[in-house]
Design a protein that fits this description.
Structural class: alpha/beta
Shape: globular
Number of helices: 8
Helix content: 25-40%
Radius of gyration: 18 Å
Strand order of the largest sheet: 6-7-8-3-9-10
Strand content: 25-35%
């Protein structure tokens, strides 16, 4: 079953096309990486799938719900990590997660919050305001926020940004564990090695177009160079 379906998706900002006729499918339980240089359209694609932006043309579905027509139904099934952590800096760690738990109408969220604070090594900082946190600590809390409601689809924009090696390994382990249980993961990254290690499939975007895709364990760096090299020669 396809949990993410994108067909002929295009997005224009003024005279600039951020996405041009992109088609992509991600099955239930798959982990797929999006590679591409800055400005390639990775973040725009994730924002459209997260229901935060509307496409100019094309069709997309999340968990069987068409966007943007059924955005409300899709949102409860999505966990979205943007470049910004989307945290409230004047609230402490626990209060941030409790706030989002209320938004998602979680029943008895305390145990789930405790579980995530332990996973991301934030339990000792649960009463500290987020404004005092480093970039890496904010990223860890943002990931806890994303995982909080156990979404069926994870849309992650540079999820390893700012993380130390040990925490990045924890994130990889958790994503693989969730995928085995049926969670679908689409993540954007500049890290070719991590894409090859973590993803079942890799897709390359360039200038808003999907220029390469592979489900094989071939060299991701080689695929990336060939795709962009061919693109430059057009």
């Amino acid at each position: 079953m396809n949990m993410i379906s994108v067909r002929g998706l295009s997005k224009r900002f003024g005279y600039r096309w951020a996405l041009k006729n992109v088609s992509l499918e991600v099955k239930r339980g798959e982990i797929v990486a999006l590679l591409g240089p800055n400005g390639a359209g990775k973040s725009t694609l994730l924002r459209i799938l997260a229901t935060l932006s509307k496409p100019t043309a094309g069709e997309c579905e999340i968990a069987g719900f068409s966007l943007p027509q059924h955005a409300i139904e899709a949102r409860v099934r999505i966990g979205f990590l943007a470049h910004q952590p989307l945290l409230y800096e004047d609230l402490n760690t626990e209060q941030n997660l409790a706030f989002y738990a209320r938004l998602y109408r979680l029943n008895r969220p305390a145990s789930r919050i405790d579980e995530l604070l332990e996973l991301f090594d934030l339990d000792s900082r649960r009463n500290e305001p987020v404004r005092t946190f480093s970039r890496g600590m904010q990223q860890r809390l943002a990931l806890a926020r994303v995982f909080l409601h156990k979404p069926r689809v994870l849309l992650l924009d540079e999820p390893h940004s700012g993380l130390d090696r040990a925490t990045a390994a924890i994130v990889d382990h958790e994503l693989k564990r969730l995928a085995k249980k049926g969670t679908t993961v689409l993540f954007a990254t500049h890290d070719h090695q991590r894409a090859q290690h973590l993803a079942r499939k890799v897709s390359v975007l360039s200038d808003g177009e999907l220029v390469a895709s592979t489900a094989h364990r071939a060299s991701v760096s080689g695929l990336y160079r060939r795709a962009l090299g061919a693109r430059a020669g057009d």
